[in-house]
Amino acid sequence: MQDYLKGLNKEQAEAVTHVNGPLMIVAGAGSGKTKVLTTRIAHLMNLGIDAFNILALTFTNKAAAEMKERIEKILGNSNARNLYIGTFHSVFARILRGEAHRIGYPNSFTIYDTDDSRSVLKTVINELNLDDKHYKPNVVHSRISQAKNALVGPAEYATDHYIQQEDMRSNRPAIAQIYQAYAARCFKNGAMDFDDLLLKMYELLQTFPEVLHRFQHKFKYIMIDEYQDTNTVQYQITKLLAAANENICVVGDDAQSIYSFRGATIENILQFQKDYDDVKVVKLEQNYRSSKSILNVANEVIKNNKGQIPKDLWTDNEEGEKIKLVRTMTDNDEGRFVADTIQEQKLRNHYYNRDFAILYRTNAQSRSFEESLRRMGIAYKIFGGVSFYQRKEIKDFIAYLRVVVNTRDEEALKRIINYPVRGIGKTTIEKIVIFANEQNITVWEVLQRAGEFGFKAGTLESINNFVTMMRYFQSMLGDKNAYDVAVQVGKHTNLVKELFNDKTVEGLARYENVQELLNSIKEWTESPDSEEGEVIEKSLGAYLQQITLLTDADDDDENADVVKLMTIHAAKGLEFPVVFVVGVEETLFPSAMSINTREELEEERRLFYVAVTRAKARLFLTYANARYRFGNLVQNEASRFLDEMPEQYIDKTYAGGGLHNKGSFENAGSAYQRMQRGFGDYNDMASVEKRYGPPPAKKAGPERKPVESKPSYMPPQATAPKVVEHKP
Ligand code: ATP
Ligand code: MG
Q: Which parts of the sequence belong to the UvrD-like helicase ATP-binding domain (predicted)?
């Protein structure tokens, strides 16, 4: 027997050694689903199946990188680099780079991130003479996104009775019109938004049988992790790809489906057995991750969901410590408690920083933990939040690079045409856009033919200079790598100089950020040039693609000794020795927006299940009686999920206001409401502040450095990010 099979249990081994025909593994958290998937890929390769013929779709690019690494370890060679592993978006983006011309896009198409999409939407909404206060771009965007993920195009959207009723009900009947205009504008700009990466892939396979056949032939073995979170378009694409060989293996847990707000549908799991004949179904019931206490609590809570495939998840692991349920006065106390406990656990149980994770429902909750960790001198890292790449100076710089690669990219072009200021004012830009629309040509074409449009001499000269400069950058694309082009852009646009001359604190930070960006492009350019089964050219286009596709959880560095802070969504599939699930309060978790229907509430409960099952040995659940949200002090009851946990596995503690008295909090159990009543004076802001200090500062004070997220957003290819110690 091969070594890699030895440690597996019977069901796991069965799944790993099932080679041909459809296979479905539905199993609870920590039962080894991902391990089975990984081992199975190694097994296939061990049998002589070519890595080039294997496609594995994961939820984050980081998961993909990890998988590849483990496979190399198992096989003892580097053949795994030829595998096609990645997220749906990254794999399809890569394929579209070679095929997009067939459906009318340039192969160098731009990928619009959420910000870009909203900005285009805003333009389109205004052009349609609609009010963007009513047709809020983010609302419209999520509507369009839903439609795309359900494979509903603009035409169908406009005629679908049900959709139209919905839009009428929210008094936004023009969304269909906006959708149509938005799609047309993206196309004209040679740009795809995130949803298009899936939608266009589907269209490509649908429209061109020869392309479909080629990829069916290439991907003889297909594997999908976290299948419960796939949406309709993902489902349809994989169904098309798998149709010829039917060697498709999906792995999932219906109890961990947490993306229905993005159109994921659990039906895909249920449908699988109907789609293929002779599906082999494997159930994994042993959990290898968590202590008995943790697993039992998770099992009990999820039982409250009605729509769940019944599962019997058990573990051989030790009983372990009881789950600590901790109440604090305020969110600041909560932060302090967590930092204190981390310090204490490190001393007492010899943990490292990297053994701890703090998981929250929303990104905004990170603040109090950051502050207390910093005060204690504990190194930490935040995953997600305001991305490095969302900062203005970075977006400006990248906008230049985008236009260099794709002149049709109107969003980027408008962003930089007069930045740094070069005498092409707002009115001129408006005129340019109007000309472009009238003549149905791109903005870039108007600029190139500026002489024909009657601009004033000075303006014309500015435009011509701009065009000449951009052409110069473009001329380098063929033979210069991404870094070389970027350096020229920084220099000739005066972008770097402009920031350098700004000697304010913010200006300095912006200058450093741009330097950091250039560093990261350099590192990327110099990193190994074979990834995901393909030789990567170090072109500017390739660089832009990979930074747009970075996902929240992708910037993990296993070796960095830092406490990890992230949302529960970002923690999917991960595990940590000690987990703090914080802010377990009504209106926060479950979220106030998700308690109106059973479906929504059940999704919140699954999220809670995901959170709890990340923990291996120790689990802390904390909640605060009062916290500042959106600038106001609000009081909250303990989350209803806490009431659903069996008492015998739980230790209740009060770690209250300011005094740090960790006395036991007896009798909290049955009536969180009673406790709630005890804090009536919280209605009075002044008395609260007197007791517990002022509300958290709205602006960072001088000693509060901005969130150190720089190292977190380096592209995955970059060498180990520098971890910043947050000294008190
Ligand atoms: P999730 O539902 O959270 O994605 P999962 O089902 O994918 O979890 P894995 O992450 O693959 O589970 O495995 C959980 C842990 O259990 C990992 O640390 C893994 O190494 C370990 N594990 C899985 N199977 C075995 C086994 N047969 N023997 C020892 N450890 C195992
Ligand atoms: Mg997993």
A: 6-291
